[in-house]
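User: I'm curious what two different proteins look like when written out as structure tokens. Can you demonstrate?

Assistant: Sure. I'll show them one after the other, since each token string lines up with its own sequence. Here's the first protein:
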Amino acid sequence: MKTSADKVIIGIISTFLIICFLNQLRNLPGGFFFSGLFYAIIILIIVLISILILAFILKFIFKKADYLKRVLISCIIILSFSIYKLYSPTLKIIVPKNYSGEVNLTLSNLNHNELNIDKNGIGYITKWTFEKTYTKPKVYDSDGKNLEKHLLSYDNNKFWGKSIGTGNTIKSLNFEIAKDTLQNKRTYQSNWLQNVDMKKVYLENPKKGPDNILDVKIK
């Protein structure tokens, strides 16, 4: 294969990865006092610097490759790693008909996600899903109605609320479904912790009880 053909193929792959990466940056959540845009800019700068550094290192490995080719190869390597690290699944969630209020996807010990939400607004997700998810989900009721216009995010910087705590804290990703499109702020406080199925809950040390100060019962 000719060198020019190599560059075309590598260039096409690099362009595809750049588009995927930039699309991911658009969906990054914020945190603390910083917006998602701030984090996106920081990550973009780090990725660009990493590409340039790797292109320099590749000079000693691919001695006959010109600068453009080394940059394109570096793009493929760095962007592939970045896309993998930033990947978030877009969850499809089904709630009961006419349901409104808080939805809690509980960190579980299961090897699959249970996204058909029960009457208490509770579903169960794997550790991988809990750690990776930040994009806005697709939410439907049991009749197939799209509830996108009723979804209320955690704050202006990110969609999901996320529990924090020790290894035996019952954790969840959460958001709220408004009663109607006129509601624009989260107001509902559920008693989901009293209704969670403890047989499915992930605890770092299962021999101990949950750290939450609640009357949590095992069903």
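Here's a second, unrelated protein for contrast:
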Amino acid sequence: MSLMTVDEVAEFLGVKDVRVIRLEREHLLRAADKDDDGNPLFDQTDVEKYKEIAQRLGGI
């Protein structure tokens, strides 16, 4: 399992980091773990699946 930071996810999805945090808070993108500072870390596979589904539904 490869973990991605909020910044990496934001870059991959083409959105701002605050959008990624909101997606996690709203349980639309589930954090797999937390870093030492308490920031969410995301499984790369989950992020890729989220992007695919979001694109099918009309965008992120």
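A detail about the second structure: The CA atoms of residues 10 and 18 lie 8 Å apart.
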